[in-house]
Each structure stands twice: as structure tokens, then as C-alpha cells.
């Protein structure tokens, strides 16, 4: 089937989408947007986090057909002329090791700071509970989230 | 595979009648895992996210009618006060991303013995509103589950809503897992005091082939509270009563050993959770009295 959706502000179409296919597969394999990572395919790891109509979701758990006509924002849509303050903070604080989980952490962090500009540490941990870093670089990630919160003020 | 995307409730029911083998999908947090892992290849997916009627909740004759497509995130933000037990359960679901998609209706439809909503709905004596082109029927949650991942739903039926009465007394929800986030319950327990009817509500999760109440334990606790005049006096629980209640809840379970935990551990955890839930709820009930007197 064909799906039409808005991705990072641009109307996009994908053909030959299999009816049981995930939005993650459609983004990566049909629309050329590999920023959202494919790891667990069961919603555990958060590395495929995108915004669906502004709400963070695991793209691996959204059927591509469910995104028909919807607005999707991926990690590729975060930066404008310059990096998003959240991206900049991850760079400056060394919150990236292998980098595989980073797109998901960026999306979850940006959403957190838009809802809650001054999160406490427990609030940060709760907001990032659905994102796993197998390098276990959580301390630097927490540093980056705190720094991004300050930078965005 | 077909992808069916009705845009109204009437159309959804007609579509399900015409395609009884279509698998309903709402948030996709269960269904898409099965598709991604090749565990299931349904003839069709029936996408319910475009049916506006399912995304609403309303108050109707003193009850909350919760549309099957309302997400856990919305239960937490919009119904934390009216449905405290269900909201406590919703807060333990997965992660923010999962709570933004997962729905109470979907949880019921999957009918997993480990579904997080189920103990809270059982303790609240909630009812499931089931519809088809043939009509609507209402089934108590305690009668909804028929086996592991099986329910009373017929092939042409869809879950329309859950009906829950906002509680007259405190509710509690406990869940044991290997961490707080992103876990399927090793076992779970829902508890509600219904002082208006002098009844206790219970719900056991992940410790039997289906979610189930513990009616004998509930009747025992309610009877002891009645006999000691505690519903009125709101005095402290007699020593050992909560522990005895916990043992009786444990005796209502029928768990198995599996990768998440042993049957023995689940039984022990249930007795502890039930004792704690009853104690916490009773303390809240006593506090209500103290704040009313102040």
C-alpha cells in the first residue's frame, strides 16, 4: 500500500509498504531516514523514538499505516542551521559513546525539557526510563540533560 | 494482509463483522511486537486509532466511561483523581513512549495474565462494554478473561469502553518487577476499599492463567472490619489482620514457574503486596477521617 505523511515538515510518500510494516522500517528503508535506530523491535530500548503528532513514541510499535496523514518528527528534524541545544549539550558533555542510543535519548530529552524546563534528577530518570544505553554512559547523559535544561533557559 | 482503517465506530463494527479474522490494533505495543517477531500473521490489521469515539472518556450517571482507545498517559493526567487505582497501575506501565501509545482497551483485548490494568480494574469491580453489529453487552472484568490471552470476545466483537465507578474509598496497586520501568510484572496486586458498600475489592495479576480476584480473602477482610465496627470507627487494623488477608490472597493464586519468576516467589510476593496494600489503604481511610474532623 501507499502511505503519505509529513516527516520533519515535508510531505513524503512511500510505495509498496507492507501492511504489517512498522513506521520505523518505513522511515529507515523507504524514506532514507536512518537516524531512528532499529534495535529491539519491541519498545524496550527507545532507540527508535520519534514524535507522532508531537508525542514521543517507539516507531517500531507504530504500524506504518497508522502514520498515514500524520506528522512525524525524527532526530534528523531536530537541528536547524545549528544543532538543537539538546544535541549541543550531548556533544559538550561527552554523552555519546557508540552513539546508537543517542537519537532516542535526544528525542526523549527534548520532549522532557519542553514539558518540564527545570526537571529534577528523579524526573529526568523517569523521562528517560524507556531509553537504554548499552555502553552504560548514563552519568554523562544525565550531565547533558541538566546542561541542556540550563542552556534552553 | 489487509490494512483496515475505519474512521467511525459504526464503520469499525461493520468492518469487524465483515473481517472477523482481522486483528484490532490501537497503540500497537503488543500487536506490533508480535508482527515484528513473526509470531503472528493476521489476515488483516484493524486500525482503531482513527475512531474518534474510542479516544474519549465521559461521566455517565456517576460512572466513568473510559473509551477503549484512551492511552495510559491520559489516564494518568486526566483521571488520576477519579480512578486512582487504575492511574497507579498506568504509572507502572513501560516507559513514557509506551504509555503514550498503550491503551486500557488494548490491554484487555490482549488479555495477558500480566496486563497492568487488570488488577486495578478487578479491584474496582469495573465492567467491559463490548459491541458488535449485533448489539452491545456489558461483562464484569472478573468474567472477561477465559484463559491465557483469551477472553469472552467473539470474532465480530470489539471492546468499546470500560465502565468504572469512581471509588468511595482508597485504592492501591502494587507491582513486582526486576526494575521499576519497562517490566512485565512478576506479580501484581490491586486493592480497593469500598466503604459505601462495606466491600473490599481485590485483583491478582501475573499469578494465575488469567487475572483474577481473591473473593474469599476480600470477604474475609470486609467481614472482620464489619465485626470489629471498624468501617465506622476507622480504628487501627487489629494485629495480624492484614497478614492473614495477605495469606488468603496468596491462596487464591495459581502461579507457574517461568523466566520472570518462580511460582513460590510469586506466592510470597503476593502475600506481602496484599498485606501492604491493605495497610496503606486502611491508613488512608483513617487519614480521611482525621482530615474531616480537623
TrEMBL record, chain A:
Gene3D superfamilies: 3.10.20.30, [2Fe-2S]-binding domain. The keyword Transcription does not apply. Keywords: 2Fe-2S, Iron, Iron-sulfur, Metal-binding, Oxidoreductase. Coiled coil: none annotated. GO terms for molecular function: 2 iron, 2 sulfur cluster binding; metal ion binding; oxidoreductase activity. InterPro entries: 2Fe-2S-bd (IPR002888), 2Fe-2S-bd_dom_sf (IPR036884), 2Fe-2S_ferredoxin-like_sf (IPR036010), 2Fe-2S_ferredoxin-type (IPR001041), 2Fe2S_fd_BS (IPR006058), Beta-grasp_dom_sf (IPR012675), Diverse_Oxidoreductases (IPR051452). Transmembrane segments: none annotated. Residues 1-78 form the 2Fe-2S ferredoxin-type domain. It comes from the Bacteria. This is Carbon-monoxide dehydrogenase small subunit. It comes from Pseudonocardia halophobica.
UniProtKB/TrEMBL annotation, chain B:
One of its GO terms (molecular function) is FAD binding. Residues 1-169 form the FAD-binding PCMH-type domain. It comes from the Bacteria. InterPro entries: CO_DH_flav_C, CO_DH_flav_C_dom_sf, Diverse_Substr_Oxidored, FAD-bd_PCMH, FAD-bd_PCMH-like_sf, FAD-bd_PCMH_sub1, FAD-bd_PCMH_sub2, Mopterin_DH_FAD-bd. The keyword Transmembrane helix does not apply. The keyword Oxidoreductase applies. Keywords: FAD, Flavoprotein, Oxidoreductase. This is Carbon-monoxide dehydrogenase medium subunit. It comes from Pseudonocardia halophobica.
